[in-house]
Amino acid sequence: MTGMGERARKAASVLAQAPTEQKNKALQLAADSLRANKSRLLAANTKDIIYGEEKSLTDAMIDRLKLDDARIEAIAASLEEIIKLDDPVGDIMAQWDQPSGLNISRVRVPLGVIGVIYESRPNVTADAGALCLKAGNAVILRGGSESFHSSTLIHECLVEGLEGAGLPADSIQLVPTRDRCAVGMMLKMTGVIDIIVPRGGRSLVERVQNESRVPVFAHLEGICHVYVDADADIEKAKDVALNAKMRRTGICGAMETLLIDRKIADRAAEIIEPIAALGCEIRGDETIAALDASYKLATDEDWDTEYLEPILSVKLVDGVADAIGHISVHSSGHTESIVTENSEAAEKFLKCVDSAIVMHNASTQFADGGEFGMGAEIGIATGRIHARGPVGLEQLTSFKYQVRGTGQTRP
Amino acid sequence: MTGMGERARKAASVLAQAPTEQKNKALQLAADSLRANKSRLLAANTKDIIYGEEKSLTDAMIDRLKLDDARIEAIAASLEEIIKLDDPVGDIMAQWDQPSGLNISRVRVPLGVIGVIYESRPNVTADAGALCLKAGNAVILRGGSESFHSSTLIHECLVEGLEGAGLPADSIQLVPTRDRCAVGMMLKMTGVIDIIVPRGGRSLVERVQNESRVPVFAHLEGICHVYVDADADIEKAKDVALNAKMRRTGICGAMETLLIDRKIADRAAEIIEPIAALGCEIRGDETIAALDASYKLATDEDWDTEYLEPILSVKLVDGVADAIGHISVHSSGHTESIVTENSEAAEKFLKCVDSAIVMHNASTQFADGGEFGMGAEIGIATGRIHARGPVGLEQLTSFKYQVRGTGQTRP
Q: How many other C-beta atoms can be found within 10 angstroms of the C-beta atom of residue A43?
């Protein structure tokens, strides 16, 4: 790992100066190589599937692992999407003159070396590698042992792209081992790795957050709330709540708890029924649980649970202040939304809720770099340092100050 | 410490919503209180001085510790300077519309809880406390044991200001012990303290950087370089080099190594002599050391040494690329400057030198938040995450996304 770290830093210093066209060329050649190596990729993936079945992975995990023609094309196409994104490196973030006559500008530079630790999805190898590269960073990838053969071959295609574009092959390195120790070592590589990004389930993220000495961009969970205010347009509330819960239940931006103002308790059934009708289990407080025989009574634990499944906890609260209070205790700081036509209540919610993303009259499922216009994202961060919310190209950069003078000395 | 942490987080949630006027009122009342308690402050400081003399502190350390009428007035006045600074909280950093109809804004919010660990200067208690407060953060201060009595009384004045303005007294807490364990505990308070800022000598910063599990804003040292290019205006070079080294030799932005293009080796004496004439010891490479009998030959160690004293290492290099190469190996990433009339060389230097601050035709001693127009700073950071360069009010904030819709659901 030490050798990989040194090579990554060396590559990073080259990448920091690489022109956009060169980085894009590497990405295009990598996409071409992925398409050209489709049959080899499918063969490698078959080995992973067999290994996964031997290890008795769940069907869901096997599905995540699996590549087919369409998925390989999607991986190649997503590299081409990253080519289209603006290169943040060299952007002048701010520029001003000082009374001393000095002209000061704050200019984006790459972060340096990024470590990405992920689980079974082999496409992360390409996505994460490409995003880091486009922002001028070297990256050390540590994929899941299940996707070892697939990731190794995808990595080969990325390296073919780098070399074809005249960039260091070490710009994107893959830890060439299934050894779990590699993760522990990466987490201690301060001064070598600048940021660790874990991509995967709760146990992976938790381990990384607990053990890492390197700063981490991540979210542990997304316990997202929708609060329906007394002054809500009930049709909007029904649409937003249904979409926030049921569009996809397994993503971090899915609503897990629905809060409804007690003043409109008589409209609660209307809001909840369409969700239950799609097969979602409802776990409510006493009033809500009594609405329908199929509804269950929520336990204390429910208010702190990220289901990632068609289960929803529902609670009546006493207005926006009480909603904010519940969220401040139970939220994971990811995304919360208020539905109301009352702009005062909306602004209070937007100001006081301390989450990465706070919304008014919108589904929490919009919590996504693409929907924010940031292009591809490497994840969503709930920390407060450097990156918060979707982590896209800009969040994978740092900055420096360039100061231009005419011979100034300081009095 | 756990209790202090909990109280700080509670205070932080109140401070996050506190209006600018209320924070400013607390600062003004604290300044008033400092002036009103001048004689008590002097008495407390005398206790610290006696303790320091018993502990055989150096004269320089005793001087740093010492308060007098002028210094107390300066502390009060610096609080009033912070009142004048714009409050960054609530600033809209960016705002845009998405095709979905969602309006997205990125809004500044406080970081949360900041831990400041410092040594003997009692004024840091006031400065650091006030800066964190103005940016809406709660702060836990851990002052040096030498300034214990002075810091305790300054802290009392700050708390008087907070209470007078109706803000939580726990917004600014001082660790009420000389126990060194407190530092170790603070460094492990992830999830409670968001950022640690060490203020002090190398050994303190090194300990904090090595042990902290909480992200750190700091610089370990400032090995700053000035490179005089072949195309430099020699008069400018003389002025900039003299100022960069000798204006104040003990600050982190002071030049420690002077690089001169070998093509103008015949002008080196002219540039160095005025510096030596002010009593600066010159340690040069073979050519430079031979210029004057009083000059010494530099050892390998000199190129990696932050003297913070009137000592300067001087080396001839082969043009701007070689200068950049030397800096990339020996710099601490703080501040470097090129003196040249050649704009191509200047831009190459500004682009390729990977330091927090890179300058053209200006003294490295301008590396300062005030000179950058950022107002007071809590320090200068050489890390690449979140803050880099001067750490002022803006760098003590985070942000969140506010999303305003009209009932949008995600397709």
A: 13
